[in-house]
Amino acid sequence: MELAVTEEQRELRQALRRFFAERSPSGEVRRLMETAEGYDPGMWTLMAEQLGLQGLAIPAEHGGAGYGMRELAVVFEEMGRAVVCAPFLATVTAAAALEAGDGGHDLLPGVADGSTIATLAVAEDDGRWDPGAVRTVFEDGVLRGGKRFVLDGHVADLVLVAARDGDGVGLFAVTGEAGLVREPVPTLDQTRKLARVGLDGVAARRVGGAEAVARALDVAAVALAAEQLGGAQKALDMTVEYAKVRHQFGRPIGSFQAVKHRCADMFVLVESARSAVLNAAAVADGNPDGLPAAAALAKAYCSDAFFHTAGEAIQLHGGIGFTWEHDAHLYFKRAQGSRQLFGAPDRHRERLAAMAGLTGTA
Fold first, then answer.
1. Could you tell me the pTM of the whole model?
2. What are the domain boundaries of the chain?
């Protein structure tokens, strides 16, 4: 089973797999993760000009192609398979916030054509991703506070900041440098860059309210779940292939019952994750009111599925899976990093419980 369910989506998948095989092999991933920028500007331009990925889900009236979350899910799954180093997740999340807001639609064409790298800044020192935890303030036309764990915040041309003003939590656009203090931070997953952003007296304009922030976080959760699915599928594929060629006691290790059972468990996790992503993508496109629950379910399940599958891949590869030279560690570190990004699984399960009326807060 695959996320691409129409012929157009299958063609998109095939084009993406060819593109990332050529432009993002593991050797290139390893090179980029050691750079300060963490991505290849040339590939970023090709993603926009040849494939139109940055504008794929942006409405046509704002310079995009007007597709939806189902198509984006295909893109993110393929990116997850290849552990692509690019500020795509950050930019898609920011675009969703701008689209849901009421004052920043003029910024969308730059995002759609790839000339603007954008990101969303929500979490602060406590690491919480929900709008209710925001303490940064907007007063007299400027922001005061700081943000942590800002995805690709060190290279973003546009930073959308969740902050409080007289109307509650809002979304505020900071373009260019504008006095931003950016500090890259060390990460376990070196393929994904995070930054600390200082906002002491930074000029900004309001482009949306709390609903725009919430919508963007839900879209981010679904997109990240699709990426986790792609990584989990690749971890399963490489493990099954290794089990066919690695011999012990004169037999492929894949013929041993214990190895078969563990691979079968990995397969069940991957296919269940696929169902969660398919559901969340369909809900995002057709039933916006149901997105918070579908996004929380997908992010919680896919985070655990990817983490477990990547861990099993290392174990079943034996000693070689623990080495720096083997790609299994790239997937394991990506799994651990993405597990925490936009809220850990436990946080999303708490959200689901609250929506079901089982707790007092969301």
1. 0.94
2. 7-100, 117-209, 213-355
